[in-house]
Design brief:
binds beta-D-glucopyranose, alpha/beta, Nucleotidyltransferase, domain 5, 12 strands
Length: about 250
């Protein structure tokens, strides 16, 4: 049965929401993007999420992706959002602010769920890893189609480095340091080869907004695994959050 589920993606600069067709993963109608309140406290962001829910006059279950490690509805870290998200009972707070049942998950996990269900990872078995390249580096892993949540591999240190890998190899690093495609791809190769040494994935899927320009940097990447650009791009977080909510609502997790 086709149902429209509201998926919401909380980011450092924008909170985006759209109704998602549970059967096809397509957005139904327009996506709404509101600026992330500054400071991005959970209370302020919950009001923005509530505004999105009202905009769509929606009352069903919602899926929400957040750039934080999430365990049982509690956000445990905060890399690109206000630090008051650390150890915050975010799922309950969002449920209270919106009146909706909330499925809360890491934003990269949400993007991965979408890619596996409707995008480049459809039908893929074995160890598949998906990275979202944006302000940070989001990461997720699927083993025979099952999500291993909360990997947070944007924060590992590469051998010989003294900072989080996402400061070195994210799309933000490319833009801020004005790196050319080849130079950035060399950094990304260093990162992905280290990931390969740790996890031996069979398939690597690279997402985030920059993946729409994959032909500019894929030719310079050197990895063992099969490499694919994400298909859902910027909408992946919204779609995956909605899929996760639908799976929870229907008990198909
Ligand atoms: C956060 C992750 C998030 C990623 C992409 C990282 O800085 O720690 O939770 O998935 O950025 O937004």
């Amino acid at each position: 049965m086709k149902v429209n589920i509201l998926g919401i993606d909380i980011g450092g600069s924008g909170v985006k929401g759209a109704l998602v067709n549970s059967e096809t993963g397509d957005l139904e109608g327009e996506r709404l993007r509101l600026p992330t309140p500054q400071p991005s406290t959970p209370q302020a962001v919950a009001q923005t999420v509530a505004a999105i829910v009202s905009h769509f006059a929606y009352s069903g279950p919602i899926g929400v992706g957040v750039p934080s490690l999430v365990i049982n509805g509690v956000t445990k870290t905060a890399a690109n959002i206000d630090h008051s998200w650390i150890n915050y009972a975010a799922r309950d707070a969002l449920a209270q602010a919106t009146g909706c049942a909330v499925t809360l998950l890491n934003d990269a996990d949400a993007a991965g769920v979408a890619e596996m269900q409707f995008g480049a990872g459809r039908g893929e078995r074995g160890v598949v890893m998906i990275f979202t390249l944006g302000t940070g580096i989001g990461s997720c892993m699927f083993v025979n189609g099952h999500l291993v949540p909360n990997l947070e591999l944007g924060h590992i240190y590469l051998p010989g480095h003294r900072q989080d890998a996402e400061f070195y190899a994210s799309d933000r690093a490319r833009k801020e340091e004005e790196l050319g495609w080849k130079k950035w791809a060399t950094r990304l190769t260093e990162y992905l080869q280290y990931i390969e040494a740790l996890f031996s994935p069979e398939l690597l899927i690279l997402g985030g907004g920059v993946s729409k320009k994959h032909e500019k940097f894929f030719p310079y990447l050197r990895v063992q695994a099969r490499l694919l650009p994400a298909q859902l791009r910027n909408e992946a977080g919204i779609v995956g959050a909605a899929v996760a909510a639908w799976q929870e609502a229907t008990g198909k997790t």
